[in-house]
Amino acid sequence: MPKVGAKFMFISGEFVCAGANILFGFVNRMDSGMQFIMFSFAIRAVGAAGTAAAVTALMAIIANTFPNNVAQTIGILEVFSGMGYMIGPLIGGVLDQVGGYSLPFLVIGLAVMTIIVINVFLLPNDDKGKKTELGSFKTLWKIPAIWCTSVTAFAGALALGFLDPTLSNHLKDVNSSLNPTQVGAMFLLIGGMYAISSPFWGWLADKNNATRPMIVSGFFCACVSYLLIGPSPLLHLPTELWVICIGLGCLGLSIGCGLTPAYQDMLVSAKWYGLADDMTTYSIISGQFNSVFSIGTFIGPVLGGFLVDNLTFKWAATIFGGINMALCVLFLTFSLWEFRFFKGRRPAPNTPSQVVTVLDDERAPLLGANC
Prior knowledge:
The chain is mainly alpha-helical. It has 13 helices and no strands.
C-alpha cells in the first residue's frame, strides 16, 4: 500500500469487487455443473480479494485522515456497515423477484462503480510519494500488544459468526410458530444494536483513551450475553424467547464495545513501541486487523455448526461464552503485566511521549518514563 497509495488501492479493490459482482450475475447461464462451481468459486475469490484490498486501505485512510478520532470514525463507519448487512438481503430479495437471478448482482456492481467515480474526487490524496518503504510485519509481530489485540478482533468475529448457521434453527426449536420475518428480526436485533452503539463506543474510546477497559468490559458482557442466548444450562433459566432477545441485544452492544476500539488500540501500541506514525504503519496494522477478523468470520460459523451438531445449541453457546470470558481474563492479565512490569501507563493517542524502543534494544528499561 505505501508503494501504490491507499486511495489507489481502495479504488482498485472496489473496482475488482464491482466487476466480480457483475460477472457473478451471469454464472447461471453456464450449462455444466462443474463449470458453474469452478467459475463461482473463482469469481467469489477474486471479489473477496478486491474487498480485502478496499477494506484494508479504507482503515488506513481513516487513521491517516482522522488521527485524533480513529475509533469514533470507525464507529460511524460501522453504522453504515450494519445498515448494509440489514438492508442487503431485503434489497436482494426484491430485485430477485423483479428481475431474476442476475439483477441483484448487476445492480450492486453498477452501484459500486458509481461510488468509485464519486470517491475518485472525494477521497483525500495520500502522501505515497514521500515515503515508499514497505511496512514490516516481522517488526509489528515483535510487539506483544499487537498479538493480544489481534486475538480480540479474531474472537469478536468468531462470536458474531457463530450465530449465522445456528440461531435460526434454535429460535424455531424455542418457538415453532415464528415465521421467517420474525427470525430475521432477531438477526436485525444484533446488527441494529451493534450499528447504533458503535459511534458512542468510538467517541468514548477517543475521549477517554479507554480502549483497554472497553475491550475487557465488552467481552465480559459478551460472555454473559451468550449465556443468556442459550440459555446456558449453568444458569437454570427458562428457555423463553424474551430471554434470548435480551441476550441478542446485549451481544450487539457488547461486541461493539469490545471491537470498535481494537483498531485504535493497535495503532497506539505500535506507536508506543517505536513504529513510525505514518501511512506505512497504518497499512500493516490495517492488514493485520482485517486478516485476523476475516479468519474469525470464517471459523465462527464452522465451529458453531460443529459444536451444535455434536452437542446442543445451549452447550455450544456456553462454550462460546467461556471463550469470551477467557479472552477477557487474558486481555486484563496482559494489560496489568504490561503496566506493572514492562512499559508503564499507555499514552493517549497522538500525545507526544518518551517511547521506549524494545524491538531492537534489549538494554531498554523495563519501566517506561510514563509510569
